[in-house]
Amino acid sequence: MKPISLMRSVVTVGGWTLLSRGAGFARDMMMAAYLGAGPVADAFNVAFSLPNMFRRFFAEGAFNMAFVPMFAKKLEGGEDAQSFARDAFNGLAAILIVFSIIGTFAMPWLVWAMASGFAGDARFELAVTFGQITFSYILFISLVALLSGVLNAHGKFTEAGFVPVLLNLIFIAAMALAINLGWDMGTTLAWTTPITGIAQLGFTWVAAHRLGFRFTPRWPRITPDLKRLAMIAGPAVLAGGVVQINLLVGRQVASYTEGAVSWLVYADRLYQLPLGVVGIAIGTVLLPDLSRRLRAGDSQGGRDSFNRGTEFALALTVPCAVALVVMAVPLVRVLYERGAFGAMDSQSTAVALAIYGAGLPAFVLHKVLQPLFYAREDSKSPFRYAVWSMVLNAAFAVGLMPVMGFAAAALATSVAGWVMVWQLWRGSRTMGDEARLDDRSRRRLPRIVAAALIMGVALYLGEWVLGAALSEQYWRFFALAGLIAWGGLAYFVSGTAIGAFSLSEFRNLRRRRG
Q: pTM for the complete prediction?
């Protein structure tokens, strides 16, 4: 895969992720209007985060980081990739069926572990009830993640990219039905969760079937390849578990302030937009590409892919991070403040969003640097780094809680993210040339930062000029859109002028996409 082809694939994945995040915003705006940041919202957000936390633990982060390189190398080498994928599918399904049953019965303990601050009030019982309904989602979405890995390794990024869009569309339809038919909104959202998982699994199953892959459920076979997968996935699962412990610490800190869990969730949704569009897209495409290049001995091609991926990621992420810090208050007010979501909720969510924004480039760089390790089937190093980040995260979150309250959780996440980047970068210094920045990247990256800072000044001035319009009921969406367009123009013009990027690259990318 040539660098421009790599970028084209990233744009494809990022485009679908952008569409998904757009639908997700519509979903979150409806949830904020109907539930606000009250007890039902807190309870559902904790219940929904449980299967998603374990999903990242089992599938998207850990298992897939081990599965995708092995599967891609088997494709490159002409080996029996289909049997390997089928055995992995059945093995993962068997583990998750047992885990889903245990988790459903253990829900009171899981809720307490996630949000002990709920104990003694109505949020606890609601979270347990919602959690018992939603927890089976982990089975469906983890199998979806494996099937998506198969599709991505074949370059079928569109099919895999539609999966999260489907989730948000089903949630929006369910909330519309709940309003029109008078259903309880919290219960509706809880039951919608496993329904979306079944729909997503059905869609990816059919897409894989069209590729010629047959995933027939049967008793799992313990093959040498599956044992090797387990050996590689083990440290990756532990590393994924460390990341989830960081999230758990944040939820615990937030659970002692009513509404804080929801404030963090709504802020998380906003910074996840650029993270998903850029970071996850880069990681999704870069991992199988680097794995194939290592198998083929193409060191120079691997270096080009890594460098162009790094440039592309930071060129889009750094200005987003600056914008989230500078524009946190108007973003939250315009997008969320209506119905049950009040001014205090907006202010608190904006604080968390600005802190998350400062850590956004770090979260994206994780997605760029981790494939360097996983493509080499090295999952032990990221685990060691994650443990150190976990210790730092817990120290910041708990230690600063008496001073900063719920905002300590957001700060701890961002600080730990940057420490993780430093460790990944330092660890990659022992690798070959493909892990090194080339002259073009060294020249461009500081200019990208400079252009983003110029854009930040322009946004600050634009927010001052549009301050009244951003508070008007009917004009605020237009004012926010104008402010974003003004910032984007300032970044594009200044970045082109100082050589952070060039017009020809965008034209070439658009032409090749066509």
A: 0.68
